[in-house]
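Limitations

Structures in this collection are predictions, not experimental determinations, and the ligand pose is part of the prediction. Treat each record accordingly. The example that follows, with fe (ii) ion as the small molecule, is included so readers can see exactly what is and is not provided: the inputs are given verbatim, and the output is the predicted complex.
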Amino acid sequence: MMIDEEQLKKIKEFAVDLDWNRAFGGKSYGNKHLFRTVLLAERIADDEISRGNPVDKMIIKAGAWLHDSGLAKDIHGDALCNQDEVIAFLEELDISDEDTRKIIDCIRGHDGRSLALSREAKIVHDADTLEKMGPLGVVRETWKRSQMGWTSERICEHLRNHLDRRKSLLNTAFAKGLAEKLDQSLTPFFFTLGGQLSLK
Ligand SMILES: [Fe+2]
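Predicted complex:
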């Protein structure tokens, strides 16, 4: 049986609760990353469907809501470090084992440390990666690394490489096109940043 709207609503509430109240000890309460990621994932999915690549949008939406669920357990952990809690929750909702496996695939593959294999996982990966691109991506990555105790200098050194790496792993035409535009807007930013850091 396919995931229905009622189940998806409960998945959203569960994911937002983890993200707002448990990830980063509640310090990112109220952030809208998951909401934007779901919207981006839907847009990418529609674009893929229009190109003749069928996808399961309910799996994509569920995966997009849950992709950062690991942060609730350990901000230094891997994407699946909280999978036991997620699987138990999906079981409670009567989500089938097959759909649970597909959702877990989306979580596993979202951050580039493990390759996204299914079409649905690739789309969740690309939606999350777009949140790492452009000015918003710089602010979000800086905020996250500072929560991990990194210095400004270490974050500055890391940013350009990190963005390049994430961008290079994009799968879909929609995300590649948007990432390119967002990245171009950062050229003067990184040029000026380099000058500031070199004390010239
Ligand atoms: Fe994310």
